[in-house]
Amino acid sequence: MVRESPLAPPAAAEPEPLARSLRRQHGQIVLVLQGGGALGAYQVGVYRALHEAGIEPDWIIGTSIGAINAGLIAGNPVERRLERLHAFWSRVEHGPLHRAFAALPGLGAAAANWLTLVQGIGPFFAPNPFAFAGPHVPLGAEGAAYYSTRPLEATLRDLVDLPMLNHGSCRLTVGAANLRSGQMRYFDSRDEALDLRHVMASGALPPAFPPVRIDGELFWDGGILSNTPVEAVFDDNPRRDGIVFAVHMWNPSGPEPRTLWEVVNRQKDLQYASRAHSHIARQKQMHRLRHVIAELARRLPADAAADPGIEALTAYGCLTRMHVVRLLAPRLDAEDPFRDIDFSPQGIRARAEAGYRHTQRVLAEAPWSRAVDALEGFVLHEADAGHPAVTR
Prior knowledge:
Helix content: 40-55%
Number of strands: 12
Shape: globular
Largest sheet: 10 strands, mixed
Number of helices: 15
Distance between the termini: 58 Å
């Protein structure tokens, strides 16, 4: 029998898994997915990097294509999530006819985009022939759209486990716009049973896709009102500490456009970036005020703090802290205003790979481990592809 020397160094402790470390230090793990059509392939790469690092979200929030990806993640067991994401994106990628059009000399992607507009994407959406009879033809409130999304419903029914979506380990929230009131509505699996209608409503972008009726009300794509539904985290009740991975496909910053083509391209970025900078500035201010109130309350004399009126005021204080990692997707070569309908195999692969590499780099940097001001309740880590993450 070989005896261990008493002078031998102690065995190294097993490193703590990253997900456990994040939850212990920062609270819940939240994944927020923006809308953006075909650009949503980038989110697949982001999730793949998180999944391979052992980081599964406790809560996932999505709008539009982000809601579809979120439903595929929350609606499957951990070991099948990546497989189901890949299955969905494999089904919606361009088929042989699209690829043949894309190969036409001098036309390329423009021809494939034209075919998408005319023919649709088989497992996603199909033309509504009645819509082309004229803009004033009565189609009914639930049929007034250029395309039908019944193919998407069938695809999701095949790939999403509804009991898992409602009772699994991951809370799901999807955002949709109430057509009648113009108010944003967040459907949350914590508070009610969700089904495919809720996911479909979140992606019902007019006039392309028809609204979805839920409990007597019609809903359109939540991106009309808030394409980056991160405010659902900030306004949650009760608020909790957390690390939030917010995935953005539309860049709020960009160069001045010099052509009409560039104008349309830039207009889409600004429209669907959803006033991200102003939202962030407001949330940073609000969370700092909550910390300031909590600090002032701590310094009050005991008799003053016990006064019911003072207690009511100090209740506005809150010491929760959220680290928001904002992943900004890079612009790929030769992107154009129709990039959100670019379901080409090469486009999907390039975006998924970009999301994967970008998230791997951010995980290696771990910007959330940097020291922060004790009064900051909202810490932003700006992770622009190709640059180190900047903490603000």
